[in-house]
Amino acid sequence: MDELTTSSFKTTGSKWLLPVSDFFGFPLDQVNFLACQVFALGAAFWFRLYLSPQFSSPVVRHAVATLFGLSFVIFCFGWYAVHISVLVMVCYRILVTADIHNIHRYTMIMAVSYLAVCQVSRVFIYNYGILSTDFSGPLMIITQKTTMLAFQVHDGMCKKREDLTADQRLHAVDSKPSLIEYLSYNLNFLSILVGPCSHYKDYIDFIEGRHVQRRLRRLSASNTGQNGYDKVSEPSPMAAVTRKLLICGVCMVLFLTLTKAFPITYNVDSHFVNEAPFLTRLTYAFFSIQAARPKFYFAWALADAINNAAGYGFKGVDEAGQVSWDLISNISIWGIETATSFKKFIDNWNIQTGVWLKTVCYDRAPRYPTALTFILSALWHGVYPGYYFTFITAIPITLAARAVRKNVRQYFLSSHPVKLVYDVVTWAATQLCICYTVMPFLLLAVEPTMQYYRSMYFHIHIISILTVIVLSQSHKPRGSSSNGTKPGPYDPHPQAQPQLQPSNNNVKRK
Questions:
Q1: How would you label 37-47 residue by residue, b for 16+ Cβ within 10 Å and e otherwise?
Q2: What are the boundaries of the region Disordered (predicted)?
């Protein structure tokens, strides 16, 4: 793909920025995307300062957020924006007219089916393997939002509270949204292009001006209604926005240097595969996957900064008075780069997609939650065979990682040096497994995927399966759970995050 010129890429969006595209040598659709996100960042500051709940009604905020969002998708995708609008309107029709006992099922079938049809048509309309004018991106985000809201409305209006988990009770929606609320939630300019998906109640709290104060009260375990939290001024997001924009800058530099220097396709270059020794190929694969991450970091960090700039994403305040604006963050770069297990890596990568999968599938599946979650994730990502190779490969690796942790880890906790050795080894193993697993995700097609796996001698597949077989015969520790519930790959584990508690001390004001 690197050899292709910008003229090789097709776009149905605006061509106003074609001179910029030609000057810098970037595809026009990427230039349009970046221009919209930069505009969204400025609009987000304006939205928070001049269209705040103190000065504007919720209807006005909903309408402005929706109009900006629709303008972005029309600018980026042209007439393909019709697909996005159609999906939202059809799902709203289901929400307001369908049987309350089945709205979640009908919405899931409709959204995933429509997304799949659009993804299939895109593969045939455009050259296979060339990711240009990817209008399926916003459709993927809207699929998450429409289905998650349908499940939460079903929880709030159909189920008894005692039948819900604590998380489901927290996010249950007890009345159907109005049309303007539904459009704003799905099409708002803060998340229309790249997400993240967030809970409907959190978004409505943000629009109506309750976002920060409600989270402060929610996080207060000793709230009596007289602790003064209603009188605390909103903490400023400027520090968080600045930090995330700096991350974007670093990631952009890395993308323009490292990513270009280590092309993924070189992993299946015939000369390289035939001439380079195994360790050289393994090392290059590791560094090429590492170099491919900055573009994802950039897109998600910028999207997070945009939401924070608008005043959305407040998570809480720790005991030291440090404010966190990571409520809807999609990545934890530190968690990704230091992950010592397959699960920890996934828990810190595309976090809000993990929350969605947990909400609509993992927590609700009566049996085989892990397998069903992987299947739904594969369907959601698209039709390229490489996606399915990735998720199929992830299953034995996940099972092997669980088996190692259950049967081996306990022997390395006797002292800090021993635990450190274990952590280093598991970190290296995790990074190599991730590299091996996600390579098909980037190669996309069957032939290069099989060529890569043959060049790697299928070693991770073999090792993972043997590990599961050998350790499954081992004696399980007393009291361990064997039903495999809730340690799944898409189960975010907030216990690994520092608990945020509200504090009246040292809260940074606007």
A1: bebbbebbbeb
A2: 475-510
CA dist 447 and 133 (Å) reads: 24
Using DSSP, state whether 130 is helix, strand or coil: coil
Peptide bond into 196 cis (omega under 30): yes
Q: With cut-offs at 50, 70 and 90, classify the pLDDT of residue 28.
A: confident
Res. 437: pLDDT tops 70 = yes
What DSSP string runs through 56-119?
A: S-HHHHHHHHHHHHHHHHHHHHGGGHHHHHHHHHHHHHHHHHS-TTTHHHHHHHHHHHHHHHHH
243 C-beta neighbours (distance < 10 Å), count: 14
Q: If residue 418 lies in a helix (H) or strand (E), which one and from where to where?
A: helix 416-443
Write the CB contacts of 98 (distance below 8 Å, at least 6 apart in sequence): 106
- Residue 4: phi, psi to the nearest 5? -75, 140
The alpha-helical segments, DSSP class H, found in 209-277 are: 211-219, 238-254, 260-261, 270-275
DSSP label at residue 262: S
CA distance 86 to 82: 6
Instruction: Yes or no: say if 343 and 401 are a contact pair by the CB < 8 Å rule.
Output: yes
Task: Tell me whether strands 316-317 and 323-324 are parallel, antiparallel or unpaired.
Answer: antiparallel
How confident is the model over 295-322, as pLDDT tens digits? 999 999 999 999 999 999 999 887 677 8
CB of 96 closer than 8 Å to CB of 413? no
pLDDT tens across 70-129, in order?
A: 999 999 988 888 999 999 999 999 999 999 999 999 999 999 999 998 888 877 665 544
For residue range 467-480, what is the model confidence (pLDDT) as tens digits? 989 888 765 544 44
Query: Which pair of structure tokens corresponds to residue 343?
Result: 């699960």
Q: Which amino acid is at 206?
A: F
Give the residue numbers annotated as catalytic, written as ranges. Answer: 350, 381
Q: Which long-range contacts (CB under 8 A, 24 or more apart) does 45-52 make?
A: 45/309, 45/310, 47/310, 47/311, 48/237, 48/309, 48/310, 48/311, 52/209, 52/311
Q: How far apart are CA 461 and CA 396, in angstroms?
A: 7
237-293 confidence digits (pLDDT tens): 999 999 999 999 999 999 989 888 999 999 999 999 999 999 999 999 999 999 999
Rounded Cα–Cα distance for residues 14 and 71 (Å): 11
Contacts of 142 (CB under 8 A, 6+ apart): 84, 87, 88, 111, 186, 187
Taking a C-beta distance cutoff of 8 angstroms, is the pair 45, 189 a contact? no
Q: How far apart are CA 438 and CA 433, in angstroms?
A: 9
The DSSP call for residue 324 is E
